[in-house]
């Protein structure tokens, strides 16, 4: 006779809020599975499976008895634990050597980085309590973060990314004017911390603006992961705080903002500081200086970046909702287990929330953006999106040209590798999400619930709505791709709590299988994801390269010199310059030629533009062109399809060629 599994669980653990949540989550995962038949989208195909697996593992935790010998059976021998830091150091040295010898971060680099990441996380998870050296582990994490990011910055002649060219141009204007008024025409006039930091660093260190950027924000990004450790250590022991730090440091989107150094990067640093200050005032008997730090971090975010500000407001809103939950007590969350989380009265955050919302509205109302205020423009964009393109499972609607091109490339995929690439790109996120689900289930127990952890749960849930929920309705106004790195902060903390839960309660054999799979897959998945290697993509037929070599930079500079770098208002429509994306962003944002656009190259035909620029990368790498319908897609184009026989070549350096109308 087969026993009812729900009844079996209830015999071992009476039904509680976490038990009910796990069962409901499992049923919800089963209910969401048919959505993959209605629309083709990576998260519709995977998130229900991840949710169901996480809930099933948690229910198994409730069913299985905790075994005191489990930790001993999972521990590495002391000799191996002592030797692994040296192996990691040798591996990091190898990463530096590979970059120097090969001139860029190649597939071999990312393969070795994956191994080093696995050894690093393996030390944290499998070391005994006696062999666990937190300081040494944190040193390895920081070293890995520095090496992984600065090797890319070292090997790239210019900058890595797209927006950085615009921001460095704004920084140059501030430096030349000697005042913020140099960018009074731009929306960053009201949020200039990034640009002022680079200018000040250039003056203090007496270096170029590019070097100043790397010595200031470039250094701050790897060091900022320590804020995750400080935040997590307020909730869990050092082992799991160290694990959360490693999970965050290796995360793909976090690595990307360490390469593409823009105000989003700086906003992430301040956001982590805000998260630490927020958890601190919730976990300790705080003084005025603690709340002052919280206020300072929130103002810093507002004066740094608009998207980061909105994300910060979501976090503060989550904290306020958590406060209401515990003050009103609709779920009876009043019986805290002091052995898990310290009992503390919820912190009143209404004043902080009102202040930040008010300051944000005030600053955004004064921020110039597209001939009106930033606030008015954003609200206009959002209302237009809702009216014109929003709809359930309207996934493609409202996407950017890059996203449309990626979707088009995915649909055209014919090989198994092409079909697997989107799943490889999201695998690390899905593993982290699964561990986060387990952590969320653990903290909803009435005796474990507390304002700080509920803030993390609600913040993650709200941010996932913006990242995964709104895009399903065709709403991309909030730029969901910018949210991931911020989301990884609370997710890393909750994931550490979730893995700690599995470590305590699963049987040794099942625990070993789960942790080993996580340790082996997570670092490699994050390192191989597209966001971690934008300077030189691992899958260069699927993802564009957002870094340029010397010849491509020289060509953009020469085009500017030949044309006189005219302003956009001085260029007639028939004088627009067309090339591939992302190269057109370099020419435009570097100021070489303001009116540069993505070329339209119909399938099997040639472009019909008078002024074009061709680079050899368009024939061998993933670059974007528009089709006859104006939709972007990845396509390799030869020179004769971009520069026609009736055009004349006015510039070439072997890699880049500029063509203009011929004498006829």
UniProtKB/TrEMBL annotation:
- A cellular component term (GO) from this record? plasma membrane
Please provide the Gene Ontology terms (biological process) for this protein.
lipid biosynthetic process
Q: Could you list the residue ranges that cross the membrane?
A: 20-37, 43-63, 83-101, 107-127, 134-155, 212-236, 256-279, 286-303, 309-326, 347-366, 426-444, 456-479, 485-503, 510-530
Membrane topology is: Multi-pass membrane protein
Source species, domain of life: Archaea
Q: What is its main location?
A: membrane
For this UniProt entry, the molecular function terms from Gene Ontology, in alphabetical order, are: pentosyltransferase activity
> According to its UniProt record, where is this protein located?
Cell membrane
Q: Which InterPro entries match?
A: LipidA_mod_glycosyltrf_83 (IPR050297)
Q: Which UniProt keywords apply?
A: Cell membrane, Glycosyltransferase, Membrane, Transferase, Transmembrane, Transmembrane helix
Q: Which PANTHER family match?
A: MANNOSYLTRANSFERASE YKCB-RELATED, MEMBRANE PROTEIN
Q: What is the protein name given in its UniProt record?
A: Glycosyltransferase RgtA/B/C/D-like domain-containing protein
- Species lineage: Archaea, Methanobacteriati, Methanobacteriota, Stenosarchaea group, Halobacteria
């Amino acid at each position: 006779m087969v026993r009812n599994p729900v009844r079996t669980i209830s015999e071992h653990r009476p039904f509680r809020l976490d038990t009910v949540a796990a069962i409901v989550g499992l049923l919800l995962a089963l209910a969401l599975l048919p959505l993959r038949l209605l629309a083709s989208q990576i998260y519709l195909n995977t998130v229900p499976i991840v949710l169901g697996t996480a809930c099933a593992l948690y229910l198994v935790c409730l069913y299985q008895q905790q075994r005191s010998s489990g930790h001993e059976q999972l521990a590495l021998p002391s000799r191996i634990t002592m030797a692994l830091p040296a192996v990691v150091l040798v591996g990091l040295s190898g990463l530096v050597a590979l970059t120097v010898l090969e001139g860029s971060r190649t597939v071999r680099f990312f393969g070795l980085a994956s191994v080093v990441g696995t050894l690093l996380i393996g030390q944290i998870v499998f070391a005994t309590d006696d062999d666990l050296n937190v300081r040494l582990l944190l040193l390895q994490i920081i070293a890995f973060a520095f090496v992984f990011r600065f090797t890319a910055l070292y090997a790239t002649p210019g900058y890595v990314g797209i927006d950085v060219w615009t921001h460095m141009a704004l920084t140059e204007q501030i430096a030349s004017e000697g005042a913020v008024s140099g960018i009074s025409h731009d929306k960053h006039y009201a949020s200039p911390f990034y640009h002022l930091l680079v200018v000040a660093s250039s003056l203090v260190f007496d270096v170029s603006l590019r070097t100043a950027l790397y010595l200031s924000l470039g250094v701050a990004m790897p060091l900022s992961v320590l804020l995750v450790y400080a935040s997590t250590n307020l909730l869990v022991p050092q082992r799991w705080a160290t694990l959360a730090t490693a999970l965050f440091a290796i995360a793909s989107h976090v690595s990307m903002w360490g390469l593409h150094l823009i105000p989003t990067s700086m906003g992430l640093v301040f956001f982590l500081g805000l998260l630490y200050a927020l958890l601190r005032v919730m976990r300790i008997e705080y003084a005025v200086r603690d709340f002052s730090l919280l206020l300072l971090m929130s103002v810093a975010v507002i004066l740094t970046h608009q998207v980061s500000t909105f994300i910060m407001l979501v976090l503060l809103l989550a904290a306020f909702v958590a406060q209401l939950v515990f003050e009103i007590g609709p779920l009876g969350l009043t019986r805290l287990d002091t052995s898990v989380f310290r009992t503390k009265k919820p912190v009143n955050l209404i004043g902080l929330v009102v202040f930040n919302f008010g300051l944000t509205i005030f600053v955004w109302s004064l921020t110039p953006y597209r001939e009106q205020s930033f606030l008015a423009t954003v609200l206009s964009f959002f209302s237009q999106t809702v009216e014109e393109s929003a709809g359930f499972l309207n996934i493609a609607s409202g996407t950017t040209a890059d996203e449309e091109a990626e979707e088009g490339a995915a649909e055209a995929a014919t090989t198994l590798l092409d079909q697997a690439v989107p799943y490889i790109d999201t695998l690390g996120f899905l593993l982290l999400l699964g561990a986060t689900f387990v952590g969320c289930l653990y903290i909803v127990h009435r005796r474990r619930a507390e304002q700080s952890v509920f803030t993390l749960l609600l913040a993650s849930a709200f941010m996932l709505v913006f990242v995964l929920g709104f895009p399903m309705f065709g709403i991309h106004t909030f730029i969901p791709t910018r949210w991931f790195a911020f989301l990884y902060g609370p997710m890393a903390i909750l994931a550490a709590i979730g893995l700690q839960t599995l470590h305590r309660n699963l049987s040794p054999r099942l625990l070993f299988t789960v942790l080993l799979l996580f340790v082996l897959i997570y670092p490699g998945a994050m390192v191989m994801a597209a966001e971690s290697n934008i300077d030189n993509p691992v899958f260069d037929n699927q993802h564009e390269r957002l870094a340029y070599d010397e010849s491509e930079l020289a060509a953009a500079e020469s085009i500017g010199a030949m044309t006189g770098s005219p302003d956009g208002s001085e260029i007639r429509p028939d004088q627009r310059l067309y090339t591939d994306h992302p190269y057109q962003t370099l020419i435009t944002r570097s100021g070489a030629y303001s009116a540069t656009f993505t070329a339209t190259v119909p399938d099997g035909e040639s472009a019909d533009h008078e002024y074009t620029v061709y680079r050899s990368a368009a024939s061998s790498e993933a670059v974007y062109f528009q089709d006859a319908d104006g939709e972007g897609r990845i396509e390799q184009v030869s020179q004769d399809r971009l520069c026609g026989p009736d055009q004349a070549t006015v510039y070439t350096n072997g890699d880049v060629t500029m063509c203009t109308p011929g004498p006829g």
